[in-house]
Design brief:
Layout lengths: L4 E12 L1 H4 L5 E12 L2 E5 L8 H7 L2 E2 L11 E3 L5 H4 L10 E4 H8 L14 E4 L3 E4 L2 E5 L8 E6 L3 E5 L17 H9 L3 E5 L7 E4 L5
Parallel strand pairs: 3-5, 5-6, 6-7, 11-12
Antiparallel strand pairs: 1-2, 1-4, 2-3, 8-9, 9-10, 10-11, 12-13
Length: about 210
């Protein structure tokens, strides 16, 4: 079996106000997506910010980079969750299944959660809990940032890669606080080195899962 490969896509950045993260000043956060090629096809993990609204843009002052052409021809989209900065490009894929946890989609459709028009005309494919996309490619629920948050675990033979989305904001925070799903990531990595990549941090966490409690 050929191991899945991962390409990082830089889709821009936004400025998170200090009051949203409890810090002394605003912080600039990159918006990263990941293109995964595997034996059975190609998938895109998150799609960036897309079109915003005047209110959202005034609040976050985003700079958007378009999805590169190489990421437009995929068999599947996986969103870690449905906040606008992760699903902005979803409308570009009207005929492509978009994998999302059922509880996450229900929360988003209830309103006051995301930019509602980014949910329209999208072929959502709802799942409940863990889901195998292809051999060695597993969706794992990783609640915390949202109740329906999910991550993607890629078995690459001698190591694993975890596309963690916003399960934690930064690589330096990974594992603190401890969350029970870290044990499931440890089971899937089976003692091998894991590289954990994030939606809003260019740094990665590398080590043997789970991190120390």
């Amino acid at each position: 079996m050929t191991s899945p490969s991962v390409e990082t896509l830089d889709l821009g950045y936004f400025v998170r106000p200090a009051e949203e993260w409890g810090g002394p000043h605003a912080r600039v956060e990159p918006v990263l997506a990941y293109l995964v090629r595997h034996e059975h096809g190609t998938l895109l993990f998150d799609t960036g910010m897309g079109e915003g609204s005047p209110e959202t843009d005034a609040h976050y002052r985003p700079t958007r980079h378009p999805l590169p052409a190489v990421a437009r021809d995929v068999d599947l989209v996986v969103n870690c969750h449905l906040h606008f900065d992760h699903i902005g490009g979803n409308p570009l894929f009207p005929d492509t299944p978009v994998l999302v946890q059922r509880k996450e989609l229900a929360t988003a459709r209830a309103g006051d959660y995301t930019l509602d028009w980014l949910l329209e005309g999208v072929r959502h494919e709802e799942i409940d809990g863990e889901h195998t996309i292809a051999p060695g490619i597993t969706v794992v629920p990783t609640p915390g940032h949202t109740e329906g948050h999910q991550s993607l675990v890629l078995d690459q033979g001698d190591r694993v890669t975890v596309l963690a989305g916003q399960a934690y904001d930064f690589a330096a925070e990974f594992g603190v606080p401890y969350r029970p799903w870290l044990d499931r990531l440890a089971e899937l990595s089976d003692g091998r080195t894991a590289k954990v990549r994030f939606a809003h941090d260019r740094d990665l966490w590398e080590g043997v899962l789970p991190p120390r409690r």
